[in-house]
């Protein structure tokens, strides 16, 4: 499966997936979530416009959809019966997930992509949504408390920290802007040296409760002070 940003031409397929998702909820006795036609065509259009709507594809056919929204979510500012861990850490939220009829594995594919694009994830679901709760809890999310969506109804809120994967935007920046700096240093401190330090640091980090992305960035930057010369490189 592949994941890409949704385009305007995907709207009809996305809406059909949401219709199927609502039907599944009703079959499971969940008659309180996604009511009154939610998510509406306007919400989908806005998600696509903002670049938040992601589609899961299999041989270019859309088989799933979800919203991936970076930044603070207003509905998560208040949380009852618990609290967020490291509330000041930037996070991304997963919303509006659905799968096409007869398709499975969408949640796992979407979560794997999300883990590579954020080091802190949040998600919420209705108490009656047994399937989503099972998927979320089996995937390592911790239940943090109760939040309230825009219509005032409660949702169970979950959080996943240190997702265990390197963030793709960070990797791209370091590969494009930082690693090339080493090619101008002495032969003992070229890019092969930087990559060895990165690999060894990440291997050590897996034995400790630390943020892999911070370890990765620290290792990548560790000798960049050589841009100012050997004499003061450790200070720079």
Overall description:
α6 (191-205) runs antiparallel to α7. It contains 7 helices and 7 strands. With 236 residues, it is of the alpha+beta class. The protein is 35% helix and 21% strand. β2 and β3 (61-70) form a beta hairpin. A 7-stranded mixed beta sheet has the order 1-2-3-4-5-7-6.
Give the tags:
35% helix, 236 residues, 7 helices, alpha+beta, 7 strands
Précis, in short:
This protein has helices at residues 11-27, 41-50, 106-115, 130-138, 168-178, 191-205, 212-221, and strands at residues 2-5, 53-58, 61-70, 92-99, 120-125, 142-148, 154-161. It is an alpha+beta fold and 236 residues long.
Write down the overall geometry. Answer: elongated
Query: Could you give the count of β-strands?
Result: 7
**Helix fraction?**
25-40%
Please provide the ordered H/E string of secondary-structure elements.
EHHEEEHEHEEHHH
**Describe the biggest sheet?**
7 strands, mixed
- Between the first and last Cα atoms, what is the distance in angstroms? 44 Å
Which regions are unreliable across 5 or more consecutive residues at pLDDT < 50?
A: none
| Side-by-side strand order of the widest sheet | 1-2-3-4-5-7-6
Report the β-strand fraction as a percent range: 15-25%
Structural class: alpha+beta
Give the rounded overall mean pLDDT: 93
Number of helices, counting only DSSP H or I runs of 4 residues or more: 7
Radius of gyration, in angstroms, nearest whole number: 21 Å
């Amino acid at each position: 499966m592949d994941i890409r940003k949704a385009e305007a031409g995907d709207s009809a397929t996305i809406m059909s997936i949401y219709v199927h998702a609502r039907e599944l909820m009703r079959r499971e006795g969940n008659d309180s979530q996604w009511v009154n036609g939610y998510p509406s065509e306007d919400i989908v259009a806005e998600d696509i416009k903002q670049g938040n709507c992601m589609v899961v594809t299999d041989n270019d056919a859309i088989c799933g959809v979800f919203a991936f929204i970076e930044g603070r979510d207003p509905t998560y500012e208040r949380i009852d019966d618990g609290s967020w861990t490291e509330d000041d850490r930037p996070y991304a939220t997963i919303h509006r997930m659905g799968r096409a009829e007869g398709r499975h594995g969408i949640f796992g594919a979407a979560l794997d992509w999300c883990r590579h694009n954020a080091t802190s994830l949040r998600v919420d679901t209705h108490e009656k949504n047994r399937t989503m709760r099972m998927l979320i809890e089996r995937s390592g999310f911790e239940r943090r408390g109760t939040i309230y969506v825009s219509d005032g109804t409660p949702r169970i809120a979950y959080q996943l920290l240190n997702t265990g994967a390197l963030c793709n935007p960070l990797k791209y920046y370091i590969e494009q802007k930082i690693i090339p700096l080493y090619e101008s240093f002495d032969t003992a401190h070229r890019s092969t040296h930087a990559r060895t330090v990165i690999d060894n640091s990440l291997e050590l980090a897996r034995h400790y409760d630390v943020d892999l992305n911070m370890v990765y960035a620290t290792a990548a930057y560790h000798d960049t002070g050589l841009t100012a010369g050997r004499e003061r490189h450790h200070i720079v």
